[in-house]
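Give me the fold.
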Amino acid sequence: MLSHNHAHTDAIKGMGMLKDKAVESLGQQSLLLPAWITVALNANDRLKLLITLLQSAKQHAFTPEAKVLDWGKDFRSAGFVELDWVKDFATSAYLEDETLIVSNQETFFENLQENLSLMARPVIELGDTGNEDLCARCEIWHSHLKKFSISEGISNTTITALTHGDRKQNDSFHLLVMDLHKRINAIASTISTENIAGAHAWHVLPEDHARIEAFMHGLQRTAALKFSHPGLDTAATRDEQRLLIQNDIGTNDAHVLVIEVRDKQIELTYSELHKGRFEFFKAMLEKLNFDWQVFEPVTTADLNAGKPYHVGKATYLANTETDLLQALQMVGSRIVFVIDWNRARKRLQHFVSKKIAIKLLTQGAEDEYGHMAWLLAGGEKLVYQTMQSVASDAFRIGDRLDEVCGEHAAELFLEELMRMCSAMLLDQQPTSLIADEARMLLVHVLRKRSFEFDLLADHAAYCHALSQLLAQCLETSTTQTADAYKVITDQAKEWEHAADHLLTEARQRAERQPRWQPVVHLLSQSDDVADTLEESIFILSMLSNAPLHSIPPEVNAVLARLVQTTQAAIQDYVKAIQIARDITSDGTSQDTDAFLKVLWQMLRAERHCDELYREARLLIVNHLHDQPVAFGLTSDLAGAIESASDALLSVGHQLRKMVFEKNAVTL
């Protein structure tokens, strides 16, 4: 089945027959282990490929309509000679009473047994104390595989036993392969024939050195960012036409990266338990122009204890040797950023959304300051302690940072905190000093926070939209149909409800944080503007349809001017909110002057609205004195619009008070 593998095995047996005293004095294993390890690492690749093929067969049995990958190229590249059975293994798979039926079942399990023997040989032959458990497990699994090969189909229990990665369950074939892989890596680090820029290397050619050095240069450029965390050990060897570089990422059993360099092409195989971290690493390499082929895109509940086990292959084809070396260097520099990535993401999500947490981790990788320093400096505890020590009145237990400071401000704080932690720990500064710097950083953020203004701006935007809608209705009141007005009034009601929701949100915050009370007071008055504008649109819809048909043109004209003046005041309110964001106790007088100027324009608009309201009332009396229903509704319409301008005046006064009190400006 595997003539290539048998050739390796025969060569190893031949070497073992040497009796030369020099060889004996050196110790036979010191000569044989490098070759055994090369064979074992290749066998490891084939075992993973076989398990992936089994999972593909099961997925096809569940979803026959789904396209099945052509595995021939991958199996040929991995050293399999007989490939006919591979083609039909997945495509012909089907379920019979929840048992997976495949062609060439016996051949499949024979391949598992043979490659398990090849992979286990360095561990078994070494005979070190501590390997007994692995050796015993290998014997047990050889027995299991023989039974599986002659059973009628492959049961769910068998598939789970072969593929699961949950150490809380019984042993699995997958766990055995991972443990053998880890042990082989440990052996390799002790018997490497040379050290190339920190990589354990054996059987490499002179032309491999520059490529290994390029990878290691990138790895070492960022390796300090893992601090005391284990991982990043690298092994390199040559297998015929391929240079193989393997990196041990952290302590996770399934977290392995293997790089194959052949001519000007890089193929990187990456295995990962966490889908989010897999996607993160995949995105980093895509930015380097790697193309990805992702295996096992679907996760089923009975595979790997219900947890996704993701495997992907990234390919890069270089134009020149310089291009190839640069790509290897960049790949090496990215690896440190996946160490403890999932732990950092979960802890960041105490303070911001998952989307922002991933964005923060991505930024840390791009700017090469990472997340490990933040975790070592305390992680979420550092942030919680900072929140409590800086502003216990602003933060309550359970509060998220983005809910208090706003999403953007929280993101900026955490980004700067992670950057600062990295710089200070690399400079060997004490964590107590980091805590002091974190407090100063948060104080700065709180001084500039504008989350309250985000809420005010959103509410003002709804008021502005309602005023625009009212102005359009007055302009087209004689041409709108009843159906059209139904759509318009529904839209107005939707916007008014959305504005109400913002007020409700502010009230809920005020229950936990007293500092939100001024915002609630201001939004209550601003909500009066939204309510009266929505009411005005509803009244106008009644005036413009049967049995009433329209407002007299003279009255309509003055009401349009009244709405335009109110709309201008709302626009000034929006401007005032924007200016208020930037006013601080140490701000410039120009900011304050601009703020007061806009508020003064709101005051003048309210006075002009009073004059227009009186003019409208006179015209209503002159033109509608003999139409009591139209008279009453038109008077209500004019009064509602004028009430909106009155509410805007109160809004302006309250905004002025809130801004000046926040910044300790004497009124």
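Residues 1-31, 297-304 have pLDDT under 50 and may be disordered.
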